[in-house]
Amino acid sequence: MKQTTLIYKLIMALTGLFLCFFLIIHLLGNLQLLSPPELAREQFNWYSHLLSGNIVIKIISYVLYLSIIAHAVYALIITRVNAKAQGSKYIYDKRSEVSSWNSRNMGILGTIILIFLIIHFKDYWYIYKFGNLPLDADGNKDLYTIVITSFQQAWYVILYELSFIALGFHLLHGFFSAARTLGLYHLRYAQAIRIVGWIYSLAITLGFMLIPIYIYFNLNS
Amino acid sequence: MKLKLKIWRQENREAKGNMISYDVEGISEHMSFLEMLDLLNERLITKGERVIEFDHDCREGICGACGMMINGRAHGPLSGTTTCQLHMRSFKDGETLYIEPFRAAAFPVLRDLKIDRTAFDHVIQSGGYVSASTGQAPESNSILIPHDITEAAFDAAACIGCGACVATCKNSSAALFTSAKISHLVLLPQGKTESADRVIQMVNQMDEEGFGHCSNTDACEVECPQEISTLHIGRMNYEYNKALLLRK
């Protein structure tokens, strides 16, 4: 099968939607951090341990790594093709008046998210998998303490909040765009997907934004 | 009216072009944009200069020949109009206007504001038709098509192929044009039978011509003189995915 623009877009849509699905699970897990401190520590560490030992979760995690890599690599390929398709530049360009900023700058938003992910993986995923973590009362690795400690730093909280805003704008266009790429053309459902996309993007963004702020202002020791 | 025009001048396909300024006086606000350019050209002829070349044909918004970037927007500031339907009353006296050809790698500039849109013809030739054995045209009422279906097909068929969608797209994607043709034919019983092959061939051809990907910014729908809906792009994607999965 020839690799056409639409096949590239399909890969972007499918990996993107899988990442959208993952974000829901990730946010739900993280919301445990909002419980009272002692309960949260016990629960969150137990949950982290549960995820690291499970074969189903292991398979999903490999799909996740693959999705992130494929989404980024294909984005690069697409950007290159598009740059070539443009030809010479307009001298006076007001085309931006007719489309939204985030829909035109998914690449920039995606790059911010990718940089964030590298920091995020290094600080938690790598530490949890390969670092020496203290154990909590139940004998689980105490990831909770690592998380709480890291969000005592204002710059780290700001870094996270800014990344989440970029994520929010990326999701807002990405969710709708993926539905279009998969072939949604019915007017009523296309409108419904726009609304679902708004609700989804807002819920994910505000949900993730809440956690560092909550920790910084309430659990400051 | 008096206007300052900055117009793209380019000798031929290979030459490097640049913007040249023209001060034009005595423009009536009732003139269409193309008539205003005619006025300038007449004066250039009297002065013995080469005229500014631009495409035009019907001058009533149905042929798709005219098209240029006016102040950075395809077909100028109005929505749902071609360049010939734009009148000088849309501009203020003393204003500076930037006039450029539609730009895309697949639409090379031939001269000044004139571009080569053969790439669109190639996309149509690759599948934008219904194969018919020769013979008499069939009796038109022998295939019954509900009115709303014919209307929906006609909405897509209304595309005049002006290229504003490509010109305004940040990726120079021809998705709106190609999808309008695919939608138009797939909605009708005569076109349905070849729909799988058609969508694959037309999408492949679209790539081969050097058009970019569709990022779903929906800018094309805003600039389209015929207000072709981007839902057709959704339908093209649906037909394409269906063909990928089910085509024999």
Write the layout of secondary structure elements.
The complex is a heterodimer of chains A (221) and B (248).
Chain A: H1 5-30, H2 37-53, H3 55-85, H4 101-104, H5 106-130, H6 143-150, H7 154-181, H8 187-218
Chain B: E1 3-9, E2 18-24, H1 33-46, E3 69-70, E4 73-74, E5 96-100, E6 109-111, E7 114-115, H2 118-125, H3 147-157, H4 164-168, H5 175-186, H6 189-192, H7 195-208, H8 219-223, H9 231-246
Total domains of chain A: 1
Largest interface: A-B, 43 and 51 residues
Query: How much of the polypeptide of chain A forms β-strand, as a percent range?
Result: under 5%
Distance between the termini of chain A: 59 Å
CATH fold name of the largest domain in chain B, please?
Fumarate Reductase Iron-sulfur Protein, Chain B, domain 2
Explained architecture:
The complex is a heterodimer of chains A (221) and B (248). Chain A has 221 residues and is mainly α. Chain A has one domain (5-90, 99-218): 3 helical TM bundles of succinate and fumarate reductases (Up-down Bundle), CATH 1.20.1300. Chain A has helices spanning 5-30, 37-53, 55-85, 101-104, 106-130, 143-150, 154-181, 187-218. Chain B is α+β, with helices and mostly antiparallel strands and 248 residues long. Chain B folds into two domains: 3-111, Ubiquitin-like (UB roll) (Roll), CATH 3.10.20; 117-131 and 144-246, Fumarate Reductase Iron-sulfur Protein, Chain B, domain 2 (Orthogonal Bundle), CATH 1.10.1060. Chain B contains nine helices and seven strands. Chain B has helices at 33-46, 118-125, 147-157, 164-168, 175-186, 189-192, 195-208, 219-223, 231-246, and strands spanning 3-9, 18-24, 69-70, 73-74, 96-100, 109-111, 114-115. In chain B, strand 6 and strand 7 (114-115) form a beta hairpin. In chain B, helix 2 packs antiparallel against helix 7 and helix 7 crosses helix 9. Chain B is elongated and about 60 Å long. At the A-B interface, helix 1, helix 3 and helix 7 of A face strand 4, helix 7, helix 8 and helix 9 of B.
